């Protein structure tokens, strides 16, 4: 019988599976924005979610180092706290198309509607497919992107970790936001990871179950939620005067 000091050669070693996709979570310090890079490694096609103009050089360098072909620069909404990096990325990657909700009021190459799909990679092989879910409330054009294969959802400013987007400007509506979260996000399976557009406390992601259980705003009734949002008394984003016109 083999002792605990047996050589590793006595054991069968499982071959490592070849990863099908790449996923990177990147951070911009000034506005505490998360940018997400997704790629299908079979075709090297990639998309980026919520790029920031201040970190375009970093993101472009990473994309080039990894030999990726950037197809889409996707924004979850028209941001008020930073300028999107979509335009600068398009200059560096001429085949890249900008993507945003059709309800955003912003200029883009491609407009997405609720229920439509964004896909990179080859159908039938290992594509990355994102389901678009309209989640208005923070703005009219807010959209969340569900990556079912990776049990993840990119929620923009609609749902944050233990919080949510503000509703006191830019077409904000607490009533709409509550409906969006309860019907479009909290109906996802509990184990889906929540990747927001921002976090100000150093947390990387959450889960649907965590937010349904521990989000102090969203465990309340609709009327209580509306009252909470009406009394936040937040200052306007520092970059709003230049960010909104540029992003539109």
From TrEMBL:
Single Gene Ontology BP annotation: hydrogen sulfide metabolic process
> What does the record give as the reaction this protein catalyses?
S-sulfanylglutathione + O2 + H2O = sulfite + glutathione + 2 H(+)
| Keywords for this protein | Acetylation, Dioxygenase, Iron, Metal-binding, Mitochondrion, Oxidoreductase, Transit peptide
Q: Is Lyase set as a keyword in this record? A: no
Q: Which residues form the Metallo-beta-lactamase domain?
A: 32-198
Cellular component per GO, a single term: mitochondrion
The answer, when asked if Manganese is one of the entry's keywords, is: no
Q: Which domain of life is it from?
A: Eukaryota
| Assembly, per entry | Homodimer. Monomer. Interacts with TST. May interact with RELA.
Report what the protein is called.
Answer: Persulfide dioxygenase ETHE1, mitochondrial
Species, as recorded: Rotaria magnacalcarata
């Amino acid at each position: 019988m083999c002792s605990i000091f047996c050589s590793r050669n006595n054991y069968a070693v499982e071959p490592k599976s070849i990863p099908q996709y790449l996923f990177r979570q990147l951070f911009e310090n000034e506005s505490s924005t998360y940018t997400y890079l997704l790629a299908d490694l079979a075709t090297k096609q990639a998309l980026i979610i919520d790029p920031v103009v201040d970190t375009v050089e970093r993101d472009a360098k990473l994309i080039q180092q990894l030999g990726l072909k950037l197809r889409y620069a996707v924004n979850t909404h028209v941001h008020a706290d930073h300028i999107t990096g979509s335009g600068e990325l398009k200059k560096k990657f001429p085949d890249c198309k900008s993507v945003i909700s059709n309800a955003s009021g912003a200029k883009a190459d491609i407009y997405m509607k609720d229920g439509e799909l964004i896909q990179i990679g080859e159908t039938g092989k290992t594509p990355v497919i994102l389901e678009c879910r309209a989640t208005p409330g923070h703005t009219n054009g807010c959209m969340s992107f569900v990556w079912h294969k990776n049990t993840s959802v990119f929620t923009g400013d609609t749902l944050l970790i233990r919080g949510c987007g503000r509703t006191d400007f830019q077409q904000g509506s607490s009533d709409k936001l509550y409906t969006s979260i309860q019907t479009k996000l909290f109906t996802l399976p509990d184990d889906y990871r929540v990747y927001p557009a921002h976090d100000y406390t150093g947390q990387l992601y959450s889960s649907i179950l965590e937010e349904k259980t521990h989000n102090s705003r969203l465990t309340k009734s609709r009327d209580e939620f509306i009252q909470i949002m009406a009394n936040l008394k937040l200052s306007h984003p520092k970059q709003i005067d230049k960010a909104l016109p540029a992003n539109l």
